[in-house]
Amino acid sequence: MNVTNQATKSQRMIRRRLSKHLKSQNWFAVAVDFVIVVVGVFMGLQVQDWNEARKERIEEHALLSRLHAETVKLLETQREELVSLSERADILMSVNPVLFSQAPLRALSDLECRHIVASHVFRRPPDELPVLDEMLSTGRFDVLQDEGIKEFLRSYVIFRGRARAYYDEATNELFRLHSRFPDLIALGRAPLEAGTVDAWTALSGEGFRWNRACDVEKMRANQAFLNEYVDNLSRTGSMIQFTEQRHEHLEELESALSAHLGVPAESLAASLAGNAWLSRTDQGTTNAPVADTASSAVTDMTASASALLEALPGDRRERIGLAFDSEERMRWHFIPPEMFPRAGLALNELNERQAIAAHGLLKAGLSQDGYLTATAIMQLEDVLKELEKSDRFARNPADYYLTVFGTPSVRGTWAWRFEGHHLSLHFTIVDGRATVSTPSFFGASPAEVRTGPQRGRRALAIQEDAARALLQSLDASQRSQTVVSSITPDGILSGNAFPVEPAAPSGLTASKMTPAQQTFLRSLVEAHTAVMAADIAAERWRRINDGGFGDIGFAWAGSQERGRPHYYRVQGPTFLIEYDNTQNDGNHKHIVWRDFDGDFGRDLLREHVHSVQH
């Protein structure tokens, strides 16, 4: 007999006793019976509430168990997506030096040509969690009692909407290069050799395969083709970044679900073991040790820098290699070489072997998205040349200079720099450790191509869009603290000063934001850290978290209307990000990351001096 039936039987017995005592006018017994009835009713209600609560907990557990299974499955899908996208990016990036005349002319392989042909093809990223959508559509979301899990789910829904909007926008702007430039890319059918497997065989007919031919010489000479190719290429980097961020959101959710359900963490770790992409530490919430990835990245930089130096004759090696304590190491700017001459060697002074090593060094210091961003900025020099119709500046996409300071070593102290118009990247290694590697500067002019066949192409788009998403999430009171002026400054306030001091006012701090708004702020910071190699991004996040995420401030100046001059900064106790889009009527971007104590590796160099006898 269950608890509810027992309570019902007891209540009937009490009602019979109460009737008997009323007839005999035993008022004391009546009072006692009345109290017993009231208590019994109260207990009955409690039992009913307990049963309802128990049903809800059972339902919650069932929902979260299903959600956990779906999350683990979607994480595996993200892993496969990252592998596919990264392989595509690696192949396309290997082609860049050839296409943009930064390496000697050579024929493209069939694989390279195939990826150029398919550079506009992106499948819609898988992002659905059916249980989550079911809860939202049926109003059962509030069945969940764990506020932490609910916040992770809200954050994922916000991110998913932003990622879907970007996908729709990006895929509408991609170019079918083989259709637009048939004289550069020829498609045809060729007999299929016995035993040959071709992914496109089914589409070309039985016994045949697609035959692709890329005319590299014509590609090099066709600026319209190069512009559209870079636009497609930049979307690959953005897709990788969104996939990484989606994986991060899902990993946080899976961890919370596992803790709630008591699922061993090893089960997920085992399913993802061996995947280098998912062990990257370029996201702000990672707990992976920096040292593990640092050794790999420093090894890559050392190998590429050493290969470059070994490939150079003596006189050129002297030009590119300077002493680590040279004053030149802390001399920097982002204006054209004609206005600020650089030491070192320009890309257009290198042969194929040397250019490959130079690009390898740049790839080692940046993430895939960062490398794509840097090369896209370099190609904008050709766009500027067409727009300006002037000989004042050479506007050469290969007029970017590499300089190495000290002797490259996986255990030593050395540095290198890559610099030219709208790019100034500084990497310092101290005792084999990669530093935050600042100052780092990225710029773009035009920020958005507004006329001609390239209309709509945007450089450094995610760094603007992420800031606008945060600004739009603020209420009126918060926005009044954030918008510090209706007038934009003339440009980056910190300029090329060294050292740099914190700016004021700081704007709205993270501690005064809602959890959802803090997620937007974190995504904005990630938009800037994600351009760097994994260990450098992780070191930046370590310093941010050590300084206190709640103390990070977000400030905005100028117009809030898209396409008009505006400025923002993100500033914490240890770092400053400045962004301005104020020149050319809001169509000329500058972005800089500064570290108050770590520019040019100052902090680690002090530790080095104190720990080593000189």
Give structural notes.
By secondary structure, the chain is α+β, with helices and mostly antiparallel strands. It has three domains: 3-53; 70-279, no CATH class; 290-611, no CATH class. It has 19 helices and 15 strands. It has helices at residues 3-23, 27-99, 110-117, 130-138, 147-173, 177-180, 201-204, 216-221, 223-261, 265-272, 290-311, 314-320, 352-365, 368-388, 461-473, 476-482, 515-529, 534-547, 602-611; strands spanning 185-191, 208-214, 321-322, 345-346, 401-405, 414-420, 423-430, 433-434, 440-444, 483-485, 508-509, 553-558, 566-571, 575-581, 589-595. Strands 3, 4, 5, 6, 7, 8, 9, 10, 11, 12, 13, 14 and 15 form a 13-stranded mixed beta sheet that branches. A two-stranded antiparallel sheet has the order 1-2. The protein is globular, with a radius of gyration of 31 Å.
